[in-house]
Design brief:
384 residues; alpha+beta; Jelly Rolls; 7-stranded antiparallel sheet; 5-stranded antiparallel sheet; 5 helices; 16 strands; 47% helix; Gid1/RanBPM/SPLA_SPRY
Length: 384
């Protein structure tokens, strides 16, 4: 590279020096042949082989070449730095992209777990809905069955009442003469009943032991055992034993409900009676407990919780008892079997007045015997 001031010219140089300068200039010329010959309208380099001096144009070209090389160097350095920055940015972006992918996979897994949990929850909810729907269907079926059972019971009750009325009409003519012959006897019994009721009221106020009541009844010439089945209130399908009328038997071939009630109602001093099965099987559904005298209707028969479900049955030799608790205002209905009280909680009578013992039989050959007291298999003193 030459300085801007060359000093001596070719005219005053030594030949050997001049030769070396020409050789160097030739080499420089070869290098400059690869560059454009002009730049922005001016000659890049001109030289004279016979003169070793540089023209102003050559000096400018030299400077521009130097500047271009510097700019190229700076550009290369800048491009290198930019490239390094881009590589760093790309590496950073790749790392961020990797992190984002990992986070995306994590979120995808979390969403998958949440979706599975949601699906499981939906399945549980659907199962709960299905269970509730099934329970509702069963409840509706039960209500429908209860409604049918109620209609059946009402129809059965109407048929029973119709049968009783029909039976009373058929035997009415035969009973007229017997009623007339027994009128005086009934009047005497009514007088004794009046005395007995008066004694009962006094005994209720004094709250004395039931044995004293029996003694009082005996003093007036009557015992609890004197109550018996009423021939006038007995279905034609039933036969009563004479003269005590404590045994009743079903003799008709038809499976028809047939009832009979006692002559006198239950009273506070004698609120209980028992029935012993003598022949055949006597199911719980085969009897009613009480007959409302003034309204001529039955009270509910054996307790519903004993009529359905376990369905206990009575066989020959079993003793079933029934009574009313006159001591409380609810008038609880009492049922016993073979001297043991049955669970009849909630079974009550709307009123304890004018309640007559009553049984209903259905099967031919069924035979029972009633005990109106005072000696029972169940200790009624525990209640009254």
């Amino acid at each position: 590279m030459f300085s801007e001031k060359l000093g001596p010219t070719s005219t005053n140089l030594d030949p050997s020096v001049k030769k070396r300068l020409l050789l160097a200039w030739s080499q420089l010329g070869s290098q400059l042949m690869d560059l454009p010959t002009s730049s922005d309208g001016f000659d890049f380099l001109t030289y004279d082989v016979n003169h070793l001096s540089l023209s102003p144009t050559e000096l400018r070209a030299k400077d521009e070449l130097h500047q271009m090389k510097e700019e190229l160097k700076n550009t290369e350095e800048l491009v290198g730095k930019k490239f390094e920055q881009m590589e760093e940015s790309l590496a950073k972006l790749a790392l961020e992209n990797k992190e984002l992918r990992a986070e995306h996979e994590k979120l995808s897994l979390s969403n998958a777990n949440k979706f599975a949990e949601l699906k499981e929850y939906q399945n549980k909810q659907q199962k709960a809905i299905d269970d509730l729907t099934e329970k509702l269907k069963r409840a509706n079926n039960i209500r429908g069955m209860d409604h049918k059972q109620k209609n059946y019971q009402e129809g059965l009750q109407r048929n029973r009442d119709k049968s009783l009325k029909s039976g009373r009409a058929m035997v009415g003519a035969k009973l007229v003469k017997q009623k007339q012959s027994n009128a005086n006897k009934f009047e005497e019994i009514e007088q004794k009943n009046d005395k007995l009721e008066k004694s009962q009221k006094e005994e209720q106020l004094n709250i004395v032991h039931p044995q004293k009541t029996v003694t009082t009844m005996r003093e007036i010439g009557q015992t609890p055992q004197q109550n018996r089945w009423d021939f006038a209130a007995c279905h034609v399908n039933l036969a009563l034993s004479e003269p005590d009328r404590l045994i009743v038997q079903h003799n008709d071939d038809k499976w028809e409900w047939s009832s009979v009630r006692a002559e006198r109602p239950l009273l506070p001093e004698n609120p209980y009676f028992e029935v012993e099965v003598l022949e055949k099987t006597w199911t719980i559904r085969s009897w009613s407990a009480f007959w409302r005298g003034e309204s001529e209707r039955r009270l509910p028969a054996f307790p519903r919780n004993l009529c359905f479900g376990t369905k206990p049955e009575f066989g020959v030799g079993d003793v079933v008892g029934c009574g009313i608790n006159f001591k409380n205002h609810r008038h609880d209905i009492i049922y016993t079997k073979n001297g043991k009280r049955l669970d009849t909680w909630g079974l009550v009578a709307d009123s304890a007045s004018d309640l007559f013992p009553c049984v209903s039989l259905r099967l031919r050959g069924t035979k029972i015997k009633v005990n109106f007291g005072p000696n029972f298999k169940y200790n009624i003193a525990d209640v009254i």
